[in-house]
Task: structure prediction
Amino acid sequence: MAVRRIVPDLHSADPAASREFYVEVLGLEVVMDQGWIVTYAAPGGGGGAAPQISVMGDDASAPMRPDVSVEVDDVDAVHARAVRLGYEIVHPLTDESWGVRRFFVRDRDRDGAVVNVLGHR
Result:
């Protein structure tokens, strides 16, 4: 299993309101805009390899917002490993309409970070 990218997920009541800051001030480009989540990347950074940051409101299909998203090459293997090791799965393994397969897992600390582990289909 390999990690392909790690993207911090900032929380906002209005994700679109951050556009001016990330685009005009920092010079990033919008690489995804689902309305409830907007992802920005450094220009010319090679697609998924570019440094990225997401700003999100409420998650479209999960009961909570993740703190970070980690894209892996085999989401099913990571899910199986997390379950086997007894980690708390806080959003089940799901095929989403926007082309990803993902689940949310909490790190060991009960107050710990919620990690969105995903793979593109």
Q: What stands out?
A: The longest strand covers residues 3-11. The first helix runs from residue 19 to 25.
